[in-house]
Amino acid sequence: MKPGMKIIGGLLLTALLPGCMLMGPDYQRPTFSLPAIFSSDDVAAADQAPISAESPWWELYQDPVLNDLVAQALENNTDIKIAVARIEEADAFLREVGAALFPQVDLDAAGSRSRITQRGANPLNGANPIRENYTIRLGASYELDFWGKLRRAKESARAQTMASRYARDTVALSLSGLVVSNYLQLRSLESQITLSEDSLRTRDESLALTRKRLEGGVSSALDVYQAEVASSNLAAQIVELKRLRAVSQHQLAVLTGKLDLSLPAGDISQLPLPPLPPAGLPSNLLEARPDVRQAEQELVAQNANIGVAKAALFPTISLTATYGGESAELSDVLKSAARIWSGGLGLNLPIFNAGRLSAKVDQATAQQKQTLAAYEASVRTAFQEVNDALVTVRQNAEREVLLDSSRQAAKKALDISDNRYKSGYSAYIDVLDSQRVYNDAAIAYIQSRQARLIASVDLFKALGGGWQDQY
Fold it and tell me: Which residues constitute the domain of residue 276?
């Protein structure tokens, strides 16, 4: 073997033997000092049931209209479409980076025909001035991943792809929660409209009775004017409630991508309360949240980028080879006599760059620290959101019970004041005050049911969609 071939063979062997070498730190999941469980005092003890994070949690409200709205939103919403397109972009980038681990093969073919002068300084002496040349060449190039630069780049791209998938899941979870919350608000407004219209009919009946009593000389004009004011104010309140209901429906239309959306009337009291989680939920449920998973994958990507930057400090070794044929006749270009080939080994070693490559390592390290801090912040924020949602669910449940008692008492007071007025034992102002108190109490009760249901939506979102019966 010639000395040159020995040198090339030695270099190849040296490059291939440590092919598993990887620059930069291997990823290890950070540990944080979080409590082992969420706040158990803020979990209700009733209606406990396991809810899988993979289950469609919105179906627990047992409303077919709501289920259709969420399905339409997940299919047609523009934010979902953007997130899906980003997944496709990340997948394509991963394939691009992964392709660098394989040789690149190109086919190059060329043909030329030219004529040279017969009157130049060196005459052709009767030779043919027409020149033809045909070449076909198969070339290959391959960068040896001696320091793991390409593998670290692929590791980073793979983590970015996973992050894009979790980003899509985060958008889907937020979108479904937004649809459910708007739907609950719409149903609450419809219940308030129904209640207010019933109260308006009662006030109109009272107004008609007061006018008759005025004609009979039993009541005064003051009672009539007060009744008219009460009816007009309630009618104006109904107009505002209907406006808010229309705005909520328009918002749902945008979220679902169905701009001509028209929903039939409903009643929020017909929606069942979803089950609540048991006490002692472990904090590792946060790992099911897609935003936490996305933050971790972004950390994995930045960690791998450190290895890419460090590998750039070391030599780049590449192999090149060509094989083909060249001939003056196209028919001879593939014959053995026309054969051409070449092979080479390239090495690029950075000697002096004024610290540019070292600065890139520092940049990658600083970016990894930033992403680590962001990941830690996402975990802490998620823990807070779960605790906040748990206490909100419990407090709203207690508040609803109290407001229900208030509503029932206000209804009894209204009945008593109405009977006393008709019997002549009290002034009409007592009836008007009782009507106002009852209407406010009933509206507050409906709004408390809305707040309780929306709090359950926030709890599902905070837990990533649900909780498992086995942790």
Answer: 19-103+145-315+357-462
Cα separation, 284 vs 53, in Å, equals 13
What is the Cα–Cα distance from 347 to 454, expressed in whole angstroms? 63
Q: Which residue has the tokens 């498992």?
A: 468
Q: Locate 394 and state its tokens.
A: 């419990």
User: 34-67: per-residue pLDDT in tens?
Assistant: 777 776 555 544 444 555 545 688 988 989 999 9
**Separation of alpha carbons 16 and 225, rounded Å:** 98
Q: What is the dihedral of CA 228, 229, 235, 241, to 10 degrees?
A: -160
Which residues, 6 or more positions from 290, have their beta carbon under 8 angstroms from its beta carbon?
166, 167, 169, 170, 173, 464
Helix, strand, coil share of the chain (percent; to 5): 65, 10, 25
Are residues 50 and 469 in contact, defined by beta-carbon separation less than 8 angstroms? yes
Cα–Cα dist 179/58, whole Å: 10
Q: Looking at residue 260, which CATH number applies to its domain?
A: 1.20.1600.10
Q: Tokens representing 123?
A: 């005459």
Distance CA 290, CA 384 (A): 16
Token readout for 299 is 């950390």
Q: What is the pTM of this model?
A: 0.81
223 part of a folded domain: yes
Query: Quick check: is 135 in a domain?
Result: no
Whether 412 maps to a domain, the answer reads yes
Three-class secondary structure assignment of 228-261: HHHHHHHHHHHHHHHHHHHHHHHHHHHHHCCCCC
Instruction: Look at the chain and report how many structural domains it folds into.
Output: 1
